[in-house]
Specification:
Length: 181
């Protein structure tokens, strides 16, 4: 085995060791599972409430409740009206609902922002790792190209020498045939 071939093997072994080291340093994790596992009961409740309050179902339930409230307190006999016009109790209930929903949404957004920061860092580490791996592959391919060029030149030179030897042998054979003939 030539010195160059031994160096190529050493370099490849070192490169493989480097890749394994990089892979062991950066553990690929499922961010969603990591965050979900660390969420407190309040965080989970805030996420669930924020998710539900952003749905069409929530919108339709609120609209239905408001319409029923207004109709009952407008068209029902006066003795059955618990919140007559201008619907002060309804206004207060809607205001409280808005306050609490905004708090739940903010808590949920803060958790999402923390998750986004972790994902961005994980993506960055993955990008760095991928870049290093790609650079290693490019270096390896470049080394292979250089080795192929070297071997091609060597084979071309050897083919030229063999061709010259064959030509010399043909001339000798021709001279020997002329002398014998």
């Amino acid at each position: 085995m030539s010195t160059e071939q031994q160096e190529a093997i050493d370099t490849e072994e070192e490169r493989q060791a480097l890749y394994e080291h990089i892979a062991s340093e950066h553990q690929h994790i499922n961010i969603n599972e990591t965050i979900k596992g660390k969420a407190s009961m309040g965080d989970k409740a805030a996420d669930a409430i924020a998710t539900f309050s952003g749905s069409i179902t929530f919108l339709l339930l609120n609209a239905t409740a408001f319409v029923v409230w207004i109709v009952v307190n407008t068209l029902a006999p006066r003795t059955m009206r618990i919140d007559p016009y201008p619907f002060q109790f309804l206004t207060m209930a809607v205001s409280l609902e808005a306050i609490f929903l905004s708090i739940f949404v903010l808590v949920s957004q803060n958790r999402q922002a923390a998750k986004d920061r972790i994902m961005a860092e994980n993506n960055y580490l993955t990008d760095v790792e991928s870049r290093q791996a790609i650079m290693g592959v490019i270096e390896h391919l470049s080394a292979q190209d250089s080795e192929l060029v070297r071997q091609t030149k060597l084979l071309t030179q050897q083919a030229r020498i063999l061709t010259e030897l064959i030509e010399k042998q043909k001339r000798r054979s021709k001279r020997t045939a002329e002398v014998q003939g």
